[in-house]
Amino acid sequence: MTWLAAAAGVLLAVGALTVWVRLRYLVTTVDGPSMEPALHSGDRILVRRTRRVRAGQIVVVRIRPPTLDAPPPDDPGPAPDEEVPVVRDHPDGLLLVKRAIAVAGDPVPVDRVPSLREAREETVPPGALVVLGDNAATSWDSRDYGFVRADQFIGVAVRRLPTA
To answer: Is the bond into 73 cis (omega within 30 degrees of 0)?
Structure first.
């Protein structure tokens, strides 16, 4: 019976370690060219869930996409034989990989993010970030949606993982 208790203890320890790792880390895949040349579409990155971030770090944020181009409520939708594209969406928004260019207390970078010229703050508010993609021509970032709030910030990229 002691081997059974030892096996149960090992399983419990492995389960607790698995839960701890899942709560602390996230693996995500870069989708699109917005972070080129640093990261390419298909790169996988390990992300540490944290609230601490420094300017210059690659971060993951969750942003709800705009719905201005959504069909009207009375739209019947696609025809039965029409192919519908698959959108990997999350009800809380899309996970985006960007670079933090300003963090709480830093001056608002109005020269790089013209949409923030209208902001009343001269410094980035507590708990907020300003993010940009490395490839500005293809990036949807703070130039489009402004400050990233603390509840939208997921974590900081720790390292690129080998592709499978």
So the answer is: no
64-117 pLDDT, tens digit each: 776 544 444 445 555 666 654 444 455 567 889 999 999 999 999 999 998 888
Where are the strands (E) in 36-113, listed by range?
A: 44-49, 58-63, 94-103
Contact (Cβ atoms closer than 8 angstroms) between residue 41 and residue 31: yes
pTM of the model: 0.74
- Give the H/E segment covering residue 53: none
Name the helix (H) or strand (E) containing 28: strand 25-29
Structure tokens, 117: 């010229």
Q: Which residues pair with 148 in a beta bridge?
A: 129
Q: Rounded CA gap, 98 and 60, in Å?
A: 6
